[in-house]
Amino acid sequence: MLTLNDISKNVIDMQYEVRGALVTRAGQMEKEGRTIVKCNLGNPQELGQRPLSYLRQVLALVTSPDLIGTSIKDQNGNEVIHADLHQRARTIIDITRTVGRYTESAGLEYVRRQVAEFITRRDSIPASPDMIMLTDGASPAVKSVLQAIISSPKTGIMIPVPRYPLYSASITALGGQAVGYYLDEEHDWETNVAEMERAYSEAKKRGIDIKALVVINPGNPTGDVLPEHDIIDTIKFAQEHNLTILADEVYQDNIFNGNKFYSFAKHVLELKADDVSLFSFHSGSKAVGECGLRMGYMEMRNIPTEVYDQMVKIQSVSLCANHIGQVAMGLMVTPPRPGEASFTIYDREYKELQRNLEEKAKLMYEGINRIPGMHTAEIQGAMYAFPHLDLPAGKTDVDYCTTLLEETGILFVPGSGFGQRAGTNHFRTTLLPPKAELASMLSKLEKFHKVFVA
């Protein structure tokens, strides 16, 4: 019989805190009839966000192609699916024949072309479909790059702290070394080259062979958006130390308060940093809230052909990303255009999705900073806040979040699960519950906090 003693130590040591012990306890409480306010995970549709009609309608047609061209009307006699979406579905089926088959390992060529064209529109730079791979969301793409890079127990990957646990968990599972560099909380969680240099130098003294640097922009769990000078400084740091950059940009569509997203791809090209290998990741899980469709892509720059071939080989072990997710990624990067029949509905729904998220970011920011002994930086993007907690001596953010869950049903993730400076306490919360529920949650949180710290 297989026992725990037979399991890889790397797997046992791996931790993924956003689905850790508190989430298990919350599940038990739900079975007991308790109401749980799930602020632990960026899972938009779980918390009521509606999918975009355009994307779902085209997917409905390509999964049931006999319906293409069929009139489908609502109770008022109006066409549910506009003619231009029927035509889109017909074009997709003409290209791919059926979504029930395996695709080439790198992904459908026509979708990779669409992604390349999207990058060119976004950044006004050339992009090659031959350096794009379609993946089951961004996470498998990240893990495949780490799998390729981590070649020994001494291989180091620099990751931001606070970190998204995908990185620390994957590095541990693959037997590498996570080298944390702290983000600057006093300056809206920006990167700091001096801090990167500190982390790099200390790791090198321990014999760590640092090969890559991870940047998450917009930030998870911090909700920051990196200014352009941070992007440039980070590329120059990577260039100086011969580091590959992993640019996690899955929240690039979720930008608030007039902030602006700057891609690493654009700046690597503009800086002529041809000696910096770059892997950039994007996903439909956050951009349009379709976590369950598992749609993502990875773009590679300054990667030799033989390295690209190794990345495709890793993907080929799983044959390919799921076909429906690949089609959905193509739809995400080629939305309806003005003049098309479906544009009005799409435009209204997409703007409402973004407006609603920005309004909730404002509500969260103001609500948190209204509570004495708790504060958060400006929520500039993504869908999270990472508030700082002032707690009584001897109390930790794990104590705080555990007691909060038991007494109120509010589920946060303790800041220690993401990493933080010694002696500080935080928690991560999503912005995703409906506004009325979010306002109620903040009211309960304020009452709880006053009692907990008394």
Task: Provide a compact summary of the structure.
43% of the residues lie in helices and 13% in strands. It is an alpha/beta fold and 454 residues long.
Structure characterization notes:
With 454 residues, the protein is α/β, with parallel strands linked by helices. It has 3 domains: 4-48 and 347-452, Aspartate Aminotransferase, domain 1 (Alpha-Beta Complex), CATH 3.90.1150.10; 53-98, no CATH class; 109-333, Type I PLP-dependent aspartate aminotransferase-like (Major domain) (Aspartate Aminotransferase, domain 2, 3-Layer(aba) Sandwich). It has helices at residues 9-13, 21-31, 53-63, 83-96, 109-123, 138-149, 165-173, 193-205, 228-240, 264-270, 284-287, 305-316, 323-333, 343-369, 397-408, 435-452, and strands spanning 37-38, 132-135, 155-161, 177-182, 209-216, 244-248, 278-283, 296-301, 374-375, 384-385, 388-389, 410-411, 413-414, 425-430. A 7-stranded mixed beta sheet has the order 2-8-7-6-5-3-4, sandwiched between helices. Strands 9, 10, 11, 13 and 14 form a 5-stranded antiparallel beta sheet that branches. Strands 1-12 form a two-stranded parallel ribbon. The longest helix has 27 residues, at 343-369. It is globular, with a radius of gyration of 23 Å.
